[in-house]
Amino acid sequence: MAYVDSLLSKCTSFSQLKQLQAHLITTGIFQFYTSRSKFLDFCAISPFGNLLYAAHIFRHITSPCKNEYNAIIRGLAQSHKPIDAITFYISMARDSCMPDALTCSFTLKACARALARIETPQIHAQVIRFGFSADVLLRTTLLDAYSKCGDLRDACKVFDEMCVRDIASWNALIAGLAQGNRPTEALLLFKKMREENVNMEPNEVTVLGALSACSQLGANKEGGRVHDYIKSKNLDGNVIVCNAVIDMYGKCGILGRAYEVFNEMKCLRTRVTWNTMIMALAMYGDGEQALELFERMGRAGIEADSVSYLAAICACNHAGMVEEGMKLFDAMDRYGVSKNVKHYGSMVDLLGRAGRLDEAYKIVQSMPTVPDAVLWQTLLGASKTYGNVEMAEIASKKLVEMGSDHCGDFVLLSNLYAAQGRWHDVRRVREAMKGQDVKKVPGFSYIEVGGTIYKFMNGDKNNPKWEEIYWKLDEVLLRIREYGYVAETNYVFHDIGTEEKENALCYHSEKLAVSFGLISTPDGTCISVNKNLRICGDCHVVIKLISKIYKREIIVRDRTRFHRFKDGTCSCKEYW
Questions:
Q1: Which run of H or of E encompasses 527?
Q2: Which of 57-71, 236-250, 421-435 shows the lowest mean pLDDT across its residues?
Q3: The pTM is what?
Q4: When you count CB atoms within 10 A of the terminal residue's CB, does the N or C end of the chain come out lower?
Q5: Most distant CA atoms of the chain, gap in Å
Q6: Contact between 239 and 270 (Cβ < 8 Å)
Q7: Is the four-CA dihedral 430, 432, 437, 440 of positive or negative sign?
Q8: What is the separation of C-alpha 176 from the centre of its chain, rounded to a whole number of angstroms?
């Protein structure tokens, strides 16, 4: 009703909405379905409305109609408890009220926000049953729900079945694949979209998905092409896009380009912008510049938050700046910035790397919450590095109590016992591993060559050029031995022979990726590798020597930081 629409548009506060409701009731207009549903819809979703009040009114309606249900479901889907929208949808069916396409759309949006993986296919089945499958917008919402719930198989199936795909269809799947740890497929879909739909231009949402995929893969060349597109379409006026570009270059190890984007931004920098750049410097091990930027942020009038402090402490951690890190950690209390487990974990790592294990343990004991497994693993790793059996046993015991089945936890303790000659304890740890069915996390590495992403596992022979890769790696190992290289077999289990240990080290995924880079790119070209685990000490030594002998700059991003190898040295300065 135009009359009700006019009155609703004039409301600017919740008290005025209540006055309007009283007017509609006294005039008898509120008894009409259309009037009531419009009021409920406005009350449920307007900035000054009140969802609880709208639900209260709804509960006093004897036989709610479809639009009234829609109003409440829509409001709940946007609320902090989207799961309640699904509950209302179920009660609608019980009341024998037939949903329409809008009802299903609002409920699917609630499923996406609530990560309701079980309910999403159930709503999908009803979409088909009620004959709403041809609705393009509804199918896009369905695709988005599957993607955000992590059900990428069904998301891809919905996408493939769509006769007409708009930009929101494409965006939902690209983002879903990128966020669902399938970045290679996300990039392939981004390329497919550009190749098959010349009249459909990627927008801000599209490039955010593509940049996320590039960040995960360390695909700096593909990321650079996405950045070129962003500049050509003037999408770099969006601060969220600029932040994503900085993050992409930072995670690809192209720190200079990240800083260029940061300094040349057309839009106003937000706190996220500063935090992203500081964290990029931290991962690269440039602690001094990261702290300088942290201080510069304060001078620019941007107040540091918990993420800012975490980035700065991480920078101190990777650069071995212990005192500076401790000052930052203490400053958080002075400025009322809340600490979380990541701040404590970073401090434990910082002190542990410096050999200050007693102080690191005190940090653990001072935590207001229960330490997580990662924190105990950090302390265990530091204990192994400095041969502190007592502290290692404390950390290991805590991990066992927490039900840890991570292979690395047992390996560290076993190797520490072996280094001390405590073979009985080594056997005890091995038996515990067998009893708990501990499985090793497989190591893998990515490398981008010619716009294609290649993945290598340890001992991988799936690449079509595997024989050439292995031949090159054998050549590398032969040449580096002339420079005094001896395999660091202490990085392998102690229950196999020396020759077997050397063979186990030779074909780690990062070595295979670098070898592939050597045969696939011109001399002098930088090789960039992305690894899911921490780079091992032997690979670190080997890649340093490769950078010197073959005159290549090699960048390896592992689980925690970057290593930039050049002329036989590494940017980490052996502090990692």
A1: strand 527-531
A2: 421-435
A3: 0.78
A4: N
A5: 97
A6: yes
A7: negative
A8: 12
- Rounded-to-integer distance, Cα 264 and Cα 246, Å: 11
Phi, psi of 378 (to 5 degrees): -60, -45
Q: What is the CATH number of domain 165-267?
A: 1.25.40
Is residue 74 within 8 A of residue 49, CB to CB? The reply is: no
Angstrom distance (rounded) from CA 535 to CA 509? 10
Q: Please check whether residue 531 is in contact with residue 561, taking contact to mean a CB–CB distance below 8 angstroms.
A: no
Which of 142, 137, 148, 103 is closest to 125 using CA atoms? 142
> To 10 degrees, what angle do helices 152-161 and 119-129 make?
20
Q: Using CB atoms within 10 A of its CB, is residue 548 exposed (0-12), middle (13-18) or buried (19+)?
A: middle
Residue 78's nearest CA partner among 52, 53, 100, 110 is: 110
Q: Which of 326, 277, 335, 266 is nearest to 306 (CA)?
A: 335
> Would you tell me the crossing angle of helices 51-59 and 33-45 to the nearest 10 degrees?
150
Q: Which two tokens stand for residue 423?
A: 């073979």
Asked whether this chain's domains 165-267 and 340-441 adopt the same fold, the reply is: yes
Query: What are the tens digits of pLDDT across the range 367-380?
Result: 898 888 888 888 88
- Residue 19 one-letter amino acid: Q
Q: Which CATH architecture has domain 340-441?
A: Alpha Horseshoe (1.25)
pLDDT in tens, 165-191: 888 889 999 999 998 888 989 999 999
| SS3 category, 543 | helix
